[in-house]
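Technical annex, item 7. During the second reporting period the consortium partners agreed on a shared format for inverse folding records so that results from different sites could be compared directly. Each record opens with the tokenized structure and is followed by the designed sequence. A conforming record, contributed by the partner at site C, is shown below for reference.
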């Protein structure tokens, strides 16, 4: 089973990398970009065959390693 995890900073947490990207886009002539929030995407290939068990397993991975629970949030997609 495959899973995809989208990790991003919580609302209200400063994103200096996103701000740098927004600034760089402006200097390259891409106007109208008000802000950028940067995150990460992780694709996992799991042995699990039950979608709900896979989701629970990946959620536990996020809580323990893949995301910083203090400043980040995540969304799990089970792809099949």
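Designed sequence (site C submission):
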């Amino acid at each position: 089973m495959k899973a995809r995890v989208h990790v991003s900073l919580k609302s209200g947490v400063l994103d200096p990398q996103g701000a740098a990207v927004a600034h760089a886009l402006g200097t390259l002539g891409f106007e109208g970009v008000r802000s950028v929030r940067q995150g990460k995407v992780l694709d996992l290939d799991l042995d699990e065959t039950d979608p709900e068990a896979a989701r629970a397993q990946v959620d536990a991975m996020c809580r323990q390693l893949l995301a910083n629970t203090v400043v980040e949030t995540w969304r799990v997609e089970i792809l099949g």
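The longest strand covers residues 2-9. The chain has a mean pLDDT of 96. All partners now use this format for quarterly exchanges.
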